[in-house]
Amino acid sequence: MEFIYEGRHYPVILERKRVKNINLHIRTDGSIYVSAAPHVAEHVIQAFLEKNAARIAPASDRIREKRRGKVLHDGAVLPWLGQALTLRWAAKPCQTVRNGNVLTVFARTPEEAEYAFTQWRNAECLELFRQLNDETCAAFRQAGYQVPHARIEIKNMVSRWGSCTAQSGRISMNIRLIQYPVGSIRGVFFHEYTHFLHQDHSAAFYAVLRRMYPEYDRYDALLKMT
Ligand SMILES: [Zn+2]
Hints:
The protein is of the alpha/beta class. The chain is built from five helices and eleven strands; from the N terminus they run E-E-E-E-H-E-E-E-E-H-E-E-E-H-H-H. It has a four-stranded mixed β-sheet with strand order 1-2-4-3. A four-stranded mixed β-sheet has the order 5-6-8-7. A three-stranded mixed β-sheet has the order 9-11-10, covered by helices on one side. It is flat. The chain binds zinc ion. The site of zinc ion (ZN) has 3 residues, from loops.
């Protein structure tokens, strides 16, 4: 669901639940959330949104702007593989390039910076995670364990660093891991691969994991869910 205000489209998260009225609030990330009872027709909700558009659209913009400005302004410092990258805006069109600890993106607004950074981050992440996946798989097979070569999915997860669906040979990895040292990301791969052998967190699970990756505990301790 969405509404349009001054030519801009605003996506709306609609939740159906047992509530009396149509309720609207703007979340801390700037997204617009509406709850309504199951029987309330969509056009009624749409009319409600349009009636309130002049109030909610600017409020949502302000929050988004603030968040982006805080995070991806020119000179922002971003955690990257356990180090700090400084973001620089280039006013002329250019490729995103990393030179030592400076990342230069083509951006004149926080939105453009966020777009360029996200594209670059996703590509870097995919390449690194594929490589770690290959290495982890090879290490297990070399040690004599029968494991599948996992298909990996990179996701933004709220409460987990990784997860493993042993039956289908799939591993999900949290994209936010890219902020941490490679050793910590490797630890999550070893953890998830160990789940191909033990689906629980038993002593047997940890025995395999720590044998396969002796630095597991040290690197795992660096991961902090925020
Ligand atoms: Zn686990």
